[in-house]
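Translate sequence into structure tokens.
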Amino acid sequence: MAVEVENNENTADTKPAGWRDRAVPIAGALGTGLVAGGTLLALYSRYFATTWPLDDDRISGGRVFGDKEWIDISRLPGTFGTAAWVVGLLVLAVAAAVVWASRDGDYDGWGPAVALAGAAGLFTFPFLAVKYVLPTAYRELRTEHPWFAALPTAIAAGILVTLGSVLVLRLAWEPAKLELLPRRMLALTAAVGLLVSGAVAFVAGATGDDRRNVDHLTATRSETPTVPAGLGAEQYRISLPAQATGWNGATYGDIVPAGNGFVVSSSAGLTAYDGRTGAPRWHYLRKTGDGRPDSVGYISKSLRAAAGGTVVIAEWSELGWYAFDAVTGEILWKNSDFGAHAVDYEDPTRIPRADTAALILFFEDGLQGYDPRTGKHLWTTTTATSDCLQGRTSMLDTDTAIYLLLHCRNRSEIWSVAMTLDTTNGAVLGSREVARTTIADKDSRYVHLASSAVGVSIAWNKPAAGMIVLGRPDEVTSAPVLDRFDAIVAIDPGNTDALAQDWVRGADEGYHRLFVLDRHTGAERYELPGTQDYVGKGEAALLETEIVLVDYALSRDQRKGGFELRSWSRTDGQPIRTLPIAGAEKDCGSAGLIPAPGTLLTYCGTADSLELTGFAAG
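Result follows.
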């Protein structure tokens, strides 16, 4: 009897494919889409995304490479972006090789190359992540600089390429399994990978959008109120938290009169207030998602008012100088010529306040003027001579002019030259020589240039003590030499009045007396009764009808109390009213007065806050 033997040689090969086998080409197609999307994202990150100059930022890599290893993370975005698109192309080449080898499962000798390309896809990004200590580097770059898209998109591209490589290489191990699924299904799966990559790219791009850190509210344009002519009733109080506290006391935001009232800085940015009501009008603030100021903060003491109070400028760490319309809060320019040239000033307090005509930068070889509304460079002038070197020049700015005091010498004499400039073109408006004496007096001689809000005084001690008081730039050539007194507190450029103070020696102790004089003749007009304390800069103002002063109550009757606001008539110096200011009960560490559009603003710096009080016109 014949026995028929069944041939089972190809049973395993003809067995229907299970879900595990089909998952391999699905994963490979999905990985191909991820790699393709990651490669495109890497190209965008490297060549088209927003970036930021990082200037050799370094962090310690001691936890990975030893305590003395410092890593330059400024190259991280570019390195990750370049590596991702190069490796992505290699892995896409692997995917193409898989398609080519899928029919017979053989790479025809190209196997080692496929393996190397696949290894690049698997290990490049993890290697770079360890090399750059990625979590620390990412946090450093995100907190110390404005956000920029090149960083998160480069990292996202690297992750997409790495994850896609894992899936592609699993299929590359068994390329024949690609034939288990129809090409249309594989194409749709790859498209899904591209869609996933697109979603990741969108999130990464949004993560790098620095506009998310900016809270910018503008206001409608309205008529600017005038500065009050006298002291009226209290209108409002505003309490602002101190910016920082330390062993030397609290620090507060800066304040300038501008726009429809005044502008106050904080570590987060600027807020403008209506002078008549105290209500916020516009603001430009940089904050993190949870409302905290970000590290790219406002630089203290950089706030300036320009163009008659219609423009405010301020400097931000990393970002540079921004200019705003003081009424609406709209950004007029960023950096421009002014910002590019101002980088030579390491300390913003050395940059002069802007006057009504131009922004001014003072360098050792001259002065430069800029348009406040555009930041464009307008003019350059040099005032130095062979005897009066620019490096020995003092500069003082007021709300209306720039005053220079050049210190000059030759072999036998030493003298100074007072000079005023036309800020529209840099031309010298006038100059005069003061305090010429012999070279032997160089160690004991002094010449002092001091400013009030709108004018300056120049005082000297040799060859004979004297001073001149200037309320306008054109007075530099004609102002008479007056007898010296302690200080000029305030000047009215509209007439010849100046508020001065002098020290009076008493039997037990002395006191400071305040009086109004004619700065053209030196004649005293009247004394302000009831004043004894020294009055510093920014504590008094000559208004149209009244003299207003922030004064310390304890100096008069020793009762418990602090600073208060007092006013006198400009006609005869008689007292008019005395009003309390916010924060005085907490003991003001500092106090002052700021005449602003629509208000007389007082400030009191306490241990934990800056207390503002707005007074209406009298």
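Note: Residues 1-15, 555-560 have pLDDT under 50 and may be disordered.
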